[in-house]
Design goal:
The chain is mostly beta strands. It has 4 helices and 11 strands; from the N terminus they run αβββββαββββαββα. It has helices at 11-14, 79-82, 138-141, 160-163; strands spanning 23-32, 35-40, 44-49, 63-69, 72-78, 95-103, 106-114, 116-124, 128-130, 144-150, 153-158. The strands form 2 sheets. Strands 8-1-2-11-10-9 form a 6-stranded mixed sheet. It has a 5-stranded mixed sheet with strand order 3-6-7-5-4. A hairpin with a 2-residue loop joins strand 10 and strand 11 (153-158). The two termini are 24 Å apart.
């Protein structure tokens, strides 16, 4: 269920405007520190208040551990640490976004700890720009698949499958 969105086509070139720009889909925006990120709504299974995770010995820093969610044990990832920023500070707004990711054709549920959920919105083609090229594959490794520009607001679009791929994240079931 990869979200390959392809290159953006400028509306100036094809005669379109914001009202007629093709819809890409529904996305959920959330905050991490002072930045905003978004993921496809289709990847989101549920959103719950985050309390705690049971630490897994000898795991990566970003893997907070596992949690029991209605009888299912799922890994919990601090998305701030996973993206190389700072750890998510626990507040009343801190949530666990449970996403389903395709890891080598195996569907896994993973909990992503974020500061807060901001909104669900419809993304149109003219609002999406390619991921910034940093001269490395870092954007790709971090799962950043594009930049969303809505007025003055800028958000990073994350590809959940790429973000949680076995090449990029080591989870407890990986051994």
């Amino acid at each position: 269920m990869s979200n390959h969105l392809g290159p953006k086509t400028s509306n100036r070139c094809n005669g379109g405007d914001a009202a007629t720009s093709p819809v890409i889909g529904k996305f959920m925006a959330f905050g991490l520190g002072c930045e905003e990120y978004a993921i496809a709504v289709e990847a989101v299974r549920e959103i719950v208040a985050f309390t705690e995770a049971t630490r897994v010995p000898r795991s990566e820093d970003y893997l907070l551990g596992v949690t029991n969610l209605r009888g299912r044990v799922i890994p919990v990832v601090d998305l701030g640490l996973r993206l190389g920023t700072k750890a998510v500070e626990r507040t009343d707004h801190t949530v666990l976004i449970v996403v389903q990711a395709d890891r080598d054709h195996e569907q896994v549920n993973v909990g992503l700890v974020v500061d807060e959920v901001n909104e669900v919105f419809t993304l149109r083609e003219h609002e999406l720009e390619p991921a910034p090229s940093l001269g490395t594959t870092e954007s790709e490794a971090f799962g950043i698949s594009g930049v969303i520009r809505m007025g003055e607001r800028v958000s990073f679009l994350l590809d959940v499958d790429r973000l949680m791929s076995r090449d990029n994240v080591r989870l407890p079931e990986d051994g």
